[in-house]
Amino acid sequence: MDVDITEKSIPVFTALDSPVRLKIINLLSKNKMNVKEISQALHLSSTITIMHLNKLEAANIIHTEKQGTRRISSLRVDNINVSFPKQLYVPYDFKEIEVPVGQYTEYDVKPSCGLAGQHGFIGKVDNPKYFMTPDRDKAGMVWFSKGYVEYQIPNFIEDQQHVEMIEISLELGSEFPFSNNNWKSDLFLTLNGKEIGYWESPGDFSDTRGRLTPSWVYDDMNQYGILKLFRVSKHGSFIDGHYASDTLISDLDLSGDSWTLRIGVKPNANYVGGCTIFGRQFGNHDQGIKCKIYYSSEDD
């Protein structure tokens, strides 16, 4: 589950703000249980137990179903990721560009793979030929088990301007046929051939539906990813503020009309668990691949 620091996440934080409900989560992490079993394990009345279960269900942390007169509860979340607002003071101007996830210009992918749009799959699933369909620009989700996709970031920096730092944010996850909430994958990102870093994705999530994912997407398919921030500066390259590689902004040749961004998973990685890229109207973050270019001017 992916949550942020906004009012819509309050039910999740409220549900976790209770020693009793934490004990219930631990019980359900081992087995499905009915109300009577949970009540006896915690020495609580059925009424109090149901009150706690209702709060956990309202937060989408557990799932309940009826079996005759019994109410069976099960855990539907493997992990909860909290995204805090990121603030960065930089005394530079910036240009911001967003590239749709389906607007890649080159690819080399292996099944399982595919493209999805607002109304269904785009082309045939698990057939890399369809990655070059003209309709790929309508994709809101792109996935593959091995390989990469490349995007061209337009260079709108003027001659008298100097790039000081580049930030790239996108929603990423692993790729497993349908889904697997515990499926690690080492995802890499390069810019103009220089390695920015690797991020170990923890899974291909379907523990709860993505906030934006279209209703046609099956419940057991990729639902959402985790929003990641890659940064290249004069101090090195970072992922979510953590050091990732020695690549400096000065190491990049930024003179061309566009810059090549490559995202994928290598066959010799420690965890070859595929890659899913979420774009607008998919997952939990309504954005494509956002690129923020900080620059100084000769007049500064």
TrEMBL record:
GO molecular function, one term: DNA binding
Pfam families with a match to the protein in the record: HTH_5
PANTHER family membership: TRANSCRIPTIONAL REGULATOR, ARSR FAMILY, TRANSCRIPTIONAL REPRESSOR SDPR
Claim: Flavoprotein is one of the keywords in the record: no
Organism: Levilactobacillus suantsaii
Family matches, as InterPro entries: ArsR-like_HTH (IPR011991), HTH_ArsR_DNA-bd_dom (IPR001845), HTH_MetalResp_TranReg (IPR051081), WH-like_DNA-bd_sf (IPR036388), WH_DNA-bd_sf (IPR036390)
Designated name of the protein: ArsR family transcriptional regulator
Record keywords: DNA-binding, Transcription, Transcription regulation
Keyword Transcription regulation found: yes
